[in-house]
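Appendix B. One record, verbatim.
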Amino acid sequence: MKREVYYFSGTGNTLCLARCLAEGLDAELHPIGAYRNDDAVETDAEGIGVVFPVYYADAPMIVREFIGKLKNLPQKTVFAVCTHGGAAGDALRTVKSLLEDKGGALALAFGVPMPQNSFRKRYENKKRRIAMLEKRCKRILKKIKRGATGIRYHNALLEWLMIPATKYIIKPACKLYFAQHSGLDKDAPQADMIRMMDSGFTTLDACTGCGTCAQVCPADNIGIENGGPRWLHRCENCLACYNWCPQHAITGGIANKNYFYRHPDANVKDFILK
């Protein structure tokens, strides 16, 4: 079976897992950001993997839109893997629903814990979580190859207990957070608010205008003008610009946290789309 693995990553957690899966499946590896401007994505692969991080207890916008572009899904065997610093939330259920809307199906899915990259998480053993990646990847590969089905969470009990909390507490709180940082009214479409979350981004005097932020942005959301970045309001909230800036010169809005994270096995070149 010909397989392809598509991934979205901002700091390298998902990229490193996607690489491991693609190598183990002898599959082609493709960044989802490369298809951001395409109206449709067609492939002759019989098996498709979609690997992505969990944002705000759900799948990122760019991943949802990518799934909507996939063609001939009824003829494909699709698996999905989400990485998360806490829980998978609605992410895998959202992907399952989107595939079914296109006439396809989610054959197998996994939630994989990785180091928290959006805020400092006290008492987290990042080295241990990173060291566990290869072992978890091997387990996933075995299940894919033997044709297993279903959604496999790292902690199924926690995930099921989190369903009401996600619906009634976490997501409403996220929407208020979006309104605060996007500058839009709280009744605006959520997708618009997420994309406008870059409104508060700015640079410190340490910015050299090197353009790294624009190069690593998977949403092509940054232009360089007058020696510095300008955000174009199609943000995915991945904070690749913030974390990969060599001078740590980006701040403001959701980037105002003074905590930086990059997976040790990833580098800037991995994020520059050709």
